[in-house]
Amino acid sequence: MARSEKNGFFFRLFRRRPVVPVVRLSGPIGMNMPLVSSMSLASVSKQLDRAFSYRKAAAIALVVNSPGGAPTQSHLIHQRIRQLADRNKKKVIVFVEDVAASGGYMIACAGDEIVADNYSIVGSIGVVSASFGFEKMLKKLGIERRVYTAGDSKRQLDAFLPEKPEDIRRLKALQESIHADFIALVKKNRGKRLAASDKALFNGEYWLGGQALKYGLIDGIGDLRGTLQKRFGKNVALPLIAPPSGFFARRIPGMSGAILPGDWAKTALGALEERALWGRYGL
Predict the structure, then answer these.
(1) pTM of the predicted model, to two decimals?
(2) Of 148, 155, 178, 255, which shows the fewest CB atoms inside 10 Å?
């Protein structure tokens, strides 16, 4: 059955019930590694397209649960949501679960309205870059690393070389540029609802739902089902728009092929980095 036919069948079946399609946007953003789940425009675009294809939907609900990640993918997902909302003239209501921090909050800002739980973590409007330094380990083990480049800057911030002040300044300049754009995006989308100074809001700090509400980072406290039933009636239908099905897609998100022996270290580091992202906001 074609998508349009499925949607038509759904509305014929529940034609007397208001409908709000639900899309879950979960996980770190842009960490595409084997065995490491991630969110990207490619992984969520089909779900978003399907949700906005319900022409008679009363609104679109997005459930965001992400500690952040890659700024590019965060921005691309934000843009896609707004493009679909404007094109289809649909109101987008975002519900924050455990965390909408950093890139997760950037995505949440695509909503016309943001609702969170009292214990949700919201904010972290900043930019971070983390890596490791292995140069002392290599020296201790008597290992010599050989890299040949064309271009003086091709080895900036190499994990196997000592840091250079000029490389750090370059990275900081990039971070400041991204941070400025992030701040502009929040101001554009939240507008006069923001109720605190730039210094308080945009220093990378994060808050529980109640404080985020006072600062104007969200619009209300509540949960998806209770809020939508209050808004559209107790008989509101909330169809979950699931991601593409398939054995690997269901069980190993982000897995695109076999894992080679050389990939295990990269995969392990990716898993540790993902756990560290989530762990920043745990109890």
Answers:
(1) 0.81
(2) 148
